[in-house]
Amino acid sequence: TPTPSAGDSKISLAASSTVYTYHCLCSHLLLATTTPLPSLPQRQHCISKAYIMPLPPPPSPQQKPGSRPHAHRHSPSGQGLQDDSHYGLLISTFLQREPEIVTSESGFEKRYLQRCGRCNLIVGYQLDWAQFPDQMGEGTNAGMDVKLGRREDVVFLLPGALMTTRDMVLG
């Protein structure tokens, strides 16, 4: 009988209805997602190789209590829509008020740091819309829909800052 390849197991894990939970190194619960972090895409041209996790849109006033917001939005790379089967939430992080300017291969990045709610460790970040010029209203609809400030539909998670609940329990 054929054995499944590593790629097959990632696909089946990514499609499962299991909720994966992740903790800070201090053991504080920070993240719940239906997609395990290793199955998420990673930033390729960044030294941190951060995981790219889509976030749900904020609830709309018309949304019924208990219903799930639609996850139809553009991917961080601007290529197509996100898969509606993924759902991820930051549970107990706080956003640093002032952005940090970081030197990157392509120049500078404006990062809004996400920190652990207990120990203050940086566990991820969000980028400014200025980092995504192809999605800022340039081109066909120039000036019509310019987005400013922090991009709230995606978070970049630092691989060494989180551990699974299983790893935390097993030590």
TrEMBL record:
Region (Disordered): 51-83
InterPro entries attached to this UniProt entry: STEEP1_dom
Superkingdom in the source lineage: Eukaryota
Domain STEEP1: 16-168
Pfam families, alphabetized: STEEP1
Membrane spanning residue stretches: none
Protein's recorded name: STEEP1 domain-containing protein
Naturally occurring in which organism (per UniProt): Clohesyomyces aquaticus
